[in-house]
Amino acid sequence: MTEPGLTKRQKQVLRAIYNSLKDSGYPPTLADLRDELDVSSNQAVLDLLRLLEEKGFIKKEEGMARGIKILEKGFTFLGVKNLLPYVGVSAAGPYTLALEDVRWQNVGGEVELISDILVKVKGDSMIGAGIEDGDIVLVREVKEFKNGDIVLARNDDETTIKRLVHDDGKVYLKSENPKYKNIPIYPDTRLLGKFIRVIGKAKND
Length: 205
What we know:
This protein is α+β, with helices and mostly antiparallel strands. It folds into two domains: about 10-80, Winged helix-like DNA-binding domain superfamily/Winged helix DNA-binding domain (Arc Repressor Mutant, subunit A), CATH 1.10.10.10; about 85-200, Ribbon (Umud Fragment, subunit A), CATH 2.10.109.10. It is built from four helices and twelve strands; from the N terminus they run αααββαββββββββββ. It has helices at about 10-25, 30-35, 40-55, 70-80, and strands at about 60, 70, 85-90, 95, 105, 115-120, 135-140, 150-155, 160-165, 170-175, 185, 190-200. A hairpin with a 2-residue loop joins strand 8 (about 150-155) and strand 9. Helix 1 crosses helix 3 (about 40-55) and helix 2 (about 30-35) packs across helix 3. It starts with 7 loop residues before the first helix and ends with a strand.
């Protein structure tokens, strides 16, 4: 018996998206979903995805082949734990390589599924704030950043996690370890998100 709100086909697609995220770390491709549904048409799959999005179960990122997110309503419907995108490594030290290699990972507690990501921390410059090398941290996209926020920042093609400081007209990124220098805010520096909490330690890849 199909539960209210979704047809059998829509539920099949939602479950396939979740299984792909959980098992491989990536959303399914259209080809994967065609195989799951045993159909030959991309349009049939796209129509089902559109209906799931309109009903608030998923969100599809335009221009991304695998840009599918399951929203809170979708996880609740399936009776499973939330999954968040785990986007890669960021430095707690100097800048490191840009975020890449998006995967998905189970996470408990309160999250915002549209605006939250998980980031692995590399380095010890934020140990004074309780953020250690190898930690997985929850980062949230926000519209405004305040003095004292711990932020994920990008400069050129590299990222870092630091405390944002406004001090007598100067704005810079501050480490929470005295052996590291402050980092100036440059014109091309972008603040990508605000640190929310430590999720746990990264597993060995």
